[in-house]
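ok so heres the complex, two chains, lmk if somethin looks off
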Amino acid sequence: ATPEPVKDEL
Amino acid sequence: MNAFRFLGDMTHLFSVLVLLLKIYATKSCSGVSRKTQELYMVVFVARYMDLFTDYISLYNSVMKVVFITSSAAIVWCMRRHPQVRRTYDRDQDTFRHVVLVAASFVLALIFNERFTFREICWAFSIYLEAVAILPQLVLLQRSRNVDNLTGQYVLFLGAYRAFYILNWIYRYFTEGHTSRWIPWIAGLVQTALYADFFYYYFLSWKNNVKLELPA
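and the predicted structre for the whole thing:
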């Protein structure tokens, strides 16, 4: 599965 | 991290500090909507659940703790602090913010990146943040005289998401076309809600008169 884009924003 | 996002985070942080300063220095929360502050606390708790599970950077974790604790401190002050709570415009702050919570939650159940608890909470926090300012804007229209610090608080709060939109445009062109339409649309709605406030704030600044939002 495509890795979930990390939510790096606040 | 790009300059737009850093500027956005700093503007957001500054807006919270201005509000804390106003409440602490004047021991008053007149003109401040407690409902909006409660909504922001829900936004931060729902969005920063990954605080204890995913470590992204020291900056990211520190800012999350700052936003959660400061929003909780403001709500606590407005509810419990003996001097501050007396200055709350209870009968003016009448927006039915439960409706905003319910609508955001239903929207998050329908529109989310994945139907998982974390993703639904994240989408819920994005939608709720877009409309959380409404009780505050309604209160500003009602309470004729808007004191400077409250006006500056709303100004910085509106500016922060505008910087984030620039950040998303920048990331769109530099990091590839990640489909982040949820924050995109919610961020545009959020910033648009401030449009008339920005207009009247600019007029009051240009004509050097007290800020007054038309009823």
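quick notes: Residues 2 and 10 of chain A are 23 Å apart (CA to CA). thats all i got rn
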